[in-house]
Amino acid sequence: MVSVLEGMLKFAVMTTNSNLFNLICQCFGDDTIECCRFHDDVALSRAIYREDYHAILVDAATGIDSTRAVFARRACYGDRRAPLIVVGSFADRDSIERAFEAGADDVVLSPVDRSELAVRTFLALRRFQSTPAAPTEESAALGPYKLDRRAGVVLVNDRIVRLTVREFAIAWLLFSRAGEYVSRRQIAGAIWSSTEDIVGRTLEQHIYKLRKKLELNGSSGVQLRTMYAHGYRIELCDSTVEIDAEATLAARACRALDVHPRDSEAARTAQPWGQYAAFWNLGAPGSASLVANFVATETAHAGSDSSTYASLSIPAALLRNGTRQRR
Questions:
Q1: How does pLDDT run across 219-260, given as a tens digit for each residue?
Q2: Main site of residence (predicted)?
Q3: Measuring CA to CA, which residue among 94, 96, 84 is closest to residue 120?
Q4: Among 130, 121, 106, CA closest to 54
Q5: What contacts 33, CB < 8 A, 6 or more positions away?
Q6: For residue 235, which of 217, 222, 252 has the smallest C-alpha distance?
Q7: Where are the domains of the chain?
Q8: What is the tens place of the pLDDT at every residue in 93-121?
């Protein structure tokens, strides 16, 4: 099988299990094959971006998810230059199907048979070299937004909005998972093949530009929501409901206090103050009738024959029954 493939081959292997890595190396124990080990998907994604690998083998124990950097990058950029084979144990048949949905080209179950792994890898490699890669989804839509991955443009109400390569890749990652939060770590790994600590500021700038260019503020029925410790989410929104809610809150804020004095002692006490507050906000002269004058005597200045008096106006509601005015 190796003879049909010419030249030196490089296989990228992502696993934290040394025993599995050694087993894979034994499967391809040939001088023309080099196996390179990576411990996490960000490092693997960065290496795939910088170098050419003929096959990618991923340990199922590291986690198989379409938002993982190595899978998300293939989806965002349409980067399928090499077959991806997942190796390991799966809980059930649904788990295997999810691996294929995430982007795996083949699956080898544990316990791993060295001959089976070698045959499946070379068959997948030969398929990639002899025929074009299987067509992937080239468009995504949500509300008035339509993304064309082949052209790298977004249509908003049939109006073309052009984005940079990375802006479009972020948009594709978010729109293809509409309604789900995509973390900063996932975006950093998929788009930059790096960690959020390194590209954090750059990521925020791209999100800001994306939000501005596509007007993802809800005005078109779609908004880009940010939640701390969760990430970013594209979602449909009902702008009419939000406007009505804001109007209701504003009305409540402006509404005068509506209390019936007959309800309770607290209500009887609060009623004058509510009226006073309403008049105060409106600046009505009638509020004077609800105010009592309170005169306080300040300490007389030393050596002075007369005392200084100050007049302080307070709501009548604050003066309880039986309170005397000091004169």
A1: 889 999 998 888 999 999 864 444 444 554 454 444 444 444
A2: cytoplasm
A3: 84
A4: 121
A5: 2, 8, 9, 10, 11
A6: 222
A7: 2-130, 139-240, 256-318
A8: 899 998 888 888 899 999 999 899 999 99
The DSSP call for residue 200 is H
In the chain, the amino acid numbered 252 is R
CATH of domain 139-240: 1.10.10.10
> Is 73 within 8 Å of 48 (Cβ atoms)?
yes
Secondary structure letter of residue 284 according to DSSP: -
First-to-last alpha carbon distance for the chain, in angstroms, is 110
CA distance 86 to 65: 12
Report which of 190, 152, 168 is spatially closest to residue 66, judged by C-alpha positions: 190
Whole-model pTM over 0.70: no
Which among 180, 177, 167 is positioned nearest to 208, based on CA atoms?
167
45-70: b (≥16 Cβ within 10 Å) or e: bbbbeeeebbbbbbbbebebebbbbb
Structure letter (DSSP) for residue 74 = H
Structure tokens at 120: 């499946």
